[in-house]
Predict the 3D structure of the following.
Amino acid sequence: MAASSSPYVTLISNDGFEFIISRDAACVAGTIKKMLDPNSLFAEAISGRCTLGMINGVVLEKVCEYLYYNLKHKGEKDVPDMEIPPELCLELLMAADFLHV
Amino acid sequence: MVFDYFPPVAITMAGRRAANNQIRGPQSALTDFLASNNISAAQISADYERRQREARQQQEQEAAANGESTNQNNDEEGRVETAAQKKKRKRQQEKTLAKIKASNGSKRQKKRKDEDSDGENDDVAWDMYTKKKPLPGQLENCENCEKRFTVTAYSKTGPDGGLLCTKCSKEQEDQKKKDQKSKQQAVSRDKRRHVQSNLLDGIVQIGSKSLQELCIKVLFFIDAVNSLHAERSNSVQEVANNIHEVDEFGDLPQSLLNRLSKILSRRRVITSRTLDLFLRPDLESIDIYDCGKLETEDYVRLFSVVPKVQNLNLRNAGQFKDEVLEYVIERDVPIRYLQLEAANLVSNGKWAEFFEKCGHRLESLKLSWLDYSMDDDTFMDLIRHCPNIRRLKMKKCFRLGDVALGAITGLRQLEHLSLRLPTATTPDVLADLISSVGPGLRTLSLEGFSDADDNVLSTIHSSCTQLSKLRFTENDYCTDAGFASLFTGWSNPALAFIDLSSNRSVDYAIPDGPEDPLGLASGGFEALMGHSGSRLERLDISSCRHITYESFSKVFNGKEQYPVLKDINISFLTKIDTSVVAGMFRSCPELTKVTAFGCFNVIEVAVPKGVALIGVPNAQDSIVQEGDLDADVWQSLTM
């Protein structure tokens, strides 16, 4: 029960990298938000650990960066764009589609 | 600059290193290393000696010059200078300085010449000498103004690699700053332009872009500056920059493929090569929005790679010919939803064959811009062989007329009907059609039926009972009473989409329209909002110019709520003013887009956050209201 109220959650990539990020940031992504919904009784919600089997560490790191970037600029106007390396953008695009961000 | 300046010397040295591979006695590690880089210790010490010598000479000269002036100063001490004397002294000082400068310059030139005459070896040495930066405290001639100055840690490097004196350093820095500033300004101007352009598309950005947007932007290299460049240079290469490095999209989901297709189409870069990105054997749906650059073979390839395509949407498909349709018939491609634009090279005979062989599968058929083929007879074949069509859209099919219109009654399953026939049609045929298929219809779009009369409207009223979308545009025959009775007591539930644009009188003799208003006017508009206001999401009443100001204020009074209305088009309704628009913002809490071209009375309206107000000339810098309109602001707006 402690995990579901912790302000931090863990995202795990398919190659085993773990990213511990704040719950607020994680919930920017619709899919992760649903995974972590305390009412869902999903294993992820109880343990506070989300294993994202189709996303590798490099991409997931960028995703985490985006989640914080999004949180930081919430409600602002004229937000500067985040840097995305072109070689990552297709994989990132698929991850974004999956995560609903 | 990404590339470091690498002196050409290095290249010649590398060449020589290979040639001078000789055996030598033991050397210190440093000498060895230097030798391996073709730097001779002897050369260095010789250079050092020479530099020292030159510096000494220079100093002596300067000391001599300074000595003179100090002597002068000493002489003058204790005397009261007159203005004239002061001037004279200044002139003298300047003269001396000029002399020193000149001597320095000529000596330097001479030095240069000497070095040049000494042959290649010295040339290399000279280059090495100039490349080496003097240490702080040393004296050096400024690259720009040739003045002698003391090198400090803050001395800047000039454009040719030499050092600059304090004054020139400062000038260079200022210039740099200036350049940077103007660049920043350019970027911010482009950004503003981009925001305005987005605004025209009805996009108001709050917070950061979604990660998908960002990725797509990178993929297509779209940013404010680049798209501007692209517009200027009109170069395809620049536009779809990164896309040319993509070999395949992999397992991108259909929705994303569709987005990418739209973007590529909009940039007109769908070619044989980029088409391949959208072809995958497992796909069932293909949407290409601009096939202008595709050849007949490309379509055949499309069907051979994606044999199971069920949903095919090809716009601007000029080269979609008989052969392609032949291939589809032959391979029995299971197309269920077909949308083709401008496929004019398919003959009537081939269409008939296609309908006969594959028609039973068709559930949706949308054809547009056909001015050569698809006549009434072929259309009869369509009706005969495609009984399962639920969605039919025929737009700008120039050879269809009353016969085709009447034939549509044969489609018993029809749910969505969209027609725009350039030829004149008889209102009664249209009314018959609606009364026949109306009960099953969920959406009805009749564009440009300029001869339709109130009878058509009353048929819609009596037959259609489950519409969620209604479009009836460009007509000057139907009366306001007709529209009012359509929406009064209509058993059809509230609609989500209504487009009644350009229903107005076009008689120039009576600019305000006849006594009994023609087109959609106050009565019809109020009835419409009364009937559908609760569920209405999109409303287009542009150019319905007979709706009165009172009617607008009544409908958008701020108290009446239209809870889901998101998108309104009120273009060319000149009676609308600021307070009506303000009332609109209050009456429609979900509003995201208001199109108001030509509404000249809308001035300096406070636009709520998240709403795009488009086309208002006076509201160029629209005041964006943070949060809700409070009572005071509301008062001041409605005054």
Remarks:
- The longest helix of chain B spans residues 41-76.
- The two ends of chain B are 59 Å apart (CA to CA).
- Chain B touches chain A through 27 residues (CB under 8 Å).
- DSSP finds 23 helices and 17 strands in chain B.
